Amino acid sequence: MLKEPLVREYLNDIIEDENLVIVQCLLDGTNTDEEIAEKTNIKLNIVRKILYKLYDSGLASYKRSKDPETQWYTYAWKFDSETIVNHIEDKYKEHIDKLKVLLDFEENTMFFTCETKHQRFTFDEASENGFICPECGEEIKFEENNSIIKRIKEEITNYETNYNALKMKNAK
């Protein structure tokens, strides 16, 4: 699972790359913070900090049990693989939706800019300024945005391809 670029990217937003070994331990069946610390040679307090970050993100859960002899609590941790896939799918869907809104805005709006490209103006903004840039005083001219539209469409296609591939893997 950690070989998947989307999973790694998502986890890197939560924990640092060097701490992915903790997630790998959970996936491999090591489930207590002490065992993980021993196996990875990472300090116990750091292991616990990472586990709680995963817990706060909804990607890990734990069961607490009390040792009858020592009266100490032991925490058995579990990584939720299904939840991470659902989180990634939600994130991708949200990003695709935002890109589609942006694409619609770019396709249905006329833009204007000055020679030095201080700022982009919609038609209404440009007319309010008398087609003069408020920063440099230069005339504001129509700006062709076909390259921007093309780039947004490519980005949407890329995200949809990755999103659909992830859904297919999750469905299996």
TrEMBL record:
InterPro entries in the cross-refs? TF_E_archaea (IPR016481), TFE (IPR039997), TFIIE/TFIIEa_HTH (IPR017919), TFIIE_asu (IPR002853), TFIIEa/SarR/Rpc3_HTH_dom (IPR024550), WH-like_DNA-bd_sf (IPR036388), WH_DNA-bd_sf (IPR036390)
The keyword Transcription is annotated on this UniProt entry: yes
Q: Which SUPFAM superfamilies match?
A: Rad50 coiled-coil Zn hook, Winged helix' DNA-binding domain
The UniProt keywords, alphabetically, are: DNA-binding, Initiation factor, Protein biosynthesis, Transcription, Transcription regulation
| Superkingdom to which the source organism belongs | Archaea
Domain HTH TFE/IIEalpha-type spans what residues? Answer: 3-85
Pfam families from the entry? Answer: TFIIE_alpha (PF02002)
* A single GO BP: transcription initiation at RNA polymerase II promoter
Q: Which GO terms describe its molecular function?
A: DNA binding; translation initiation factor activity
Comment on protein domains: The winged helix domain is involved in binding to DNA in the preinitiation complex.
Assembly and partners are described as: Monomer. Interaction with RNA polymerase subunits RpoF and RpoE is necessary for Tfe stimulatory transcription activity. Able to interact with Tbp and RNA polymerase in the absence of DNA promoter. Interacts both with the preinitiation and elongation complexes.
Entry's family note: Belongs to the TFE family.
Q: What does this protein do?
A: Transcription factor that plays a role in the activation of archaeal genes transcribed by RNA polymerase. Facilitates transcription initiation by enhancing TATA-box recognition by TATA-box-binding protein (Tbp), and transcription factor B (Tfb) and RNA polymerase recruitment. Not absolutely required for transcription in vitro, but particularly important in cases where Tbp or Tfb function is not optimal. It dynamically alters the nucleic acid-binding properties of RNA polymerases by stabilizing the initiation complex and destabilizing elongation complexes.
- Record's protein name: Transcription factor E
| Organism listed in the record | Methanobrevibacter filiformis
Q: Which gene encodes it?
A: tfe
